[in-house]
DNA sequence: GTTTAATTTAAACGAGTGTTTTAATCAAAC
DNA sequence: GTTTGATTAAAACACTCGTTTAAATTAAAC
């Protein structure tokens, strides 16, 4: 099999890079196959369709990240954890994606952002049905950390948080350029992650107005 | 001029709705003109190109919202304002967009989100150059409210906030359905806005880790 | 009422898309 | 060495896209 390095993974490697920086619909199969130096038809041969290629690209990261993230949460000490600690526990699993592939962390978060914003709902469905167990585990950890916040508010705030992360990562490159130009602050992906944690931790754990005068 | 109601605004009305719910690149001129019941070529006749149509759609909202929002901030009492107050001052200008057009608030926020995420940078440039004055005014109001947060962190956190709002509004319908089914909580757009304010206010004003040990 | 300009229309253009087809090529099994 | 099945290759297919053209129509000016 396989002439040089596997055609199938050459496609995945080229696709994830282009998807992350240009979005899914803005990236043509011809651009992917030319970057990967493979034939155009090989995408449909190996993956069936562009939509399934997109899922394969995301799954390759989620299959690594989701169990790793759940383990990190589960291994936390059971008492006295703050929201900063919970979100902070996700940093290591995220950064370890860099060992998987170059710029793995950035690519993964950008892909996640693109996935949630583009592709009206069908990727959201893919993620929640394939990784729902891991997500539930995370939500329970958050809920037990902020018992003063009603369940329904936790629901809303975690979606606020998803929006924060996803939007930031999708435009991380542009924002980093501005930060470098206007504030002479040169951030890598880890610096941005560490900046966002206090923000989302404070938002999730702030007392809910309705809960106070219950 | 104008056979029935102005063709130019018929295009704008149809375009903003479709752009908001499907994104810019996913919305074809043929879909817009068929919904608007005008001829395909009239878009290029009246607006020159699709790109300029997108800008016109956004400008129609921004020209109303930006001055209105600035006035709301300027009219605030000068002392003792919290971050909740500042963001709260934007609620009225946002909701008044509903008088402009049906679902104006939601459409505007969704368009803003699409604009920042899609169209790599050229719409971000359009907004900052045309409405930079209003944005600066708002940033200064925020900065003077949280003097303990460094400027660069305010920059980042306001973009986090943009992501929170924009992402939430883009999926507000789906989230409201889930909230109604899982928690029996039936929200309209204003209720969601009032839920998000404590979240983003807490995130923006939380002490920055670096600033503490400066 | 004729002229003039603005607008609308239908049709085509040229480029780009994902996908399919058919033949060529390759590696291994017998 | 031949056969077999998997992979690669080049080409075409059937669209869709934004844009342009040129004629038809409409509205306003004189």
Automatic annotation (TrEMBL), chains A, B:
Instruction: Note the Pfam families from the entry.
Output: TetR_C_30, TetR_N
Q: Which InterPro entries match?
A: Homeodomain-like_sf, HTH-type_TetR-like_transc_reg, HTH_TetR, PsrA_TetR_C, Tet_transcr_reg_TetR-rel_C_sf
Provide the HTH tetR-type domain boundaries: 5-65
Q: Which residues bind DNA?
A: 28-47
GO MF term list: DNA-binding transcription factor activity; transcription cis-regulatory region binding
Q: Which SUPFAM superfamilies match?
A: Homeodomain-like, Tetracyclin repressor-like, C-terminal domain
> Which UniProt key words apply to this protein?
DNA-binding
Alphabetized PANTHER family for the sequence: HTH-TYPE TRANSCRIPTIONAL REGULATOR RUTR (PTHR30055), TRANSCRIPTIONAL REGULATORY PROTEIN (PTHR30055:SF235)
Its protein name is TetR family transcriptional regulator
Name the species this protein comes from: Shewanella gelidii
